[in-house]
Amino acid sequence: MAASNHIALDVLNKAHPPQTASAIFTEKVLHKPLHLRPTSPDPNSQDARAQRRLQRLRKKEKSRRQQKPKPLSVKEKRVTGIYDMSKDFQKYDIYAPLYRMWIRYIWEILGMVKGKEHWVTAQGAGPKLASADFHGAKVMVVRSKCVSMVGLQGIVVRDTKFTFQIITQQNELKMIPKNHTIFKIQIPQPDAVEENPDLKLDKDIGDEEMEANVLVFELHGSSFEHRAIDRATKKFKQRNMIEL
């Protein structure tokens, strides 16, 4: 379109003298810069080097996913018997050193030191005992809905969410459900365990010497249905026991 026939020039001529209108038209319309926004680059138009790098990364990621082992399902664990304990390892003497190690571990958690008086209360020691690991602890069933389990005692070899698996002194593996079961646990001084490895849970603790060296507490399994790894980070709160 010629400048003389431009609609903008016709409008300017009606409002300004011809010379002024021509100057405004030349400056504001004809010589006005037009800023164009560059279009986005085509993602498919990458160079060959970038394409090769992308292919290497994808191949590496695929190889990493294939190398990562797939976790076994519950059925596969049951069929393969991955958690089954062979008869050769169902012996009390094998886990007796683990019990002595657990004694030292639990006294360290409670801050108990031989020769130093230390009061253990439910408010102070309760959360520590609830979050402790009981693999290696010696427990005894003092109350249960299953009467045949009352009196069983042994070393815990596996602490699951709902059960305690213990090895008795008769070299028998027993699975005890936590629900509706109360366990009794005695924690003697580490030196006393070293002197008498066969120290039983039902030992008389009425005399003053034993009362000063043994900590006794009961564990309500119905409120203890957590895995050991989950209890380590769980905060327990005091609640009323309905079963009591």
How does this model look, in words?
The protein has 9 helices and 6 strands, in the order ααααααβββββααβα. A 6-stranded antiparallel sheet has the order 4-3-2-1-5-6. The N and C termini lie far apart (100 Å). It is α+β, with helices and mostly antiparallel strands and 244 residues long.
List keywords for this structure.
244 residues, alpha+beta, 6 strands
Helix content: 25-40%
Main beta sheet: 6 strands, antiparallel
Beginning-to-end CA distance, first to last residue: 100 Å
User: Please, what is the oligomeric state?
Assistant: single chain
β-strand amount: 15-25%
Mean pLDDT level: 77
- Helix count from the secondary structure assignment: 9
Low-confidence stretches: 201-210
SSE-based structural type: alpha+beta
**How are strands sequenced across the largest beta sheet?**
4-3-2-1-5-6
**From N to C, what is the helix and strand string?**
HHHHHHEEEEEHHEH
Radius of gyration: 40 Å
State the shape: elongated
By DSSP, the count of extended strands is 6
Draw up the topology in text.
Elements: H1 7-15, H2 18-30, H3 48-67, H4 74-80, H5 92-110, H6 122-130, E1 138-144, E2 153-159, E3 163-167, E4 173-177, E5 181-188, H7 190-195, H8 208-213, E6 214-220, H9 228-231
Antiparallel strand pairs: 1-2, 1-5, 2-3, 3-4, 5-6
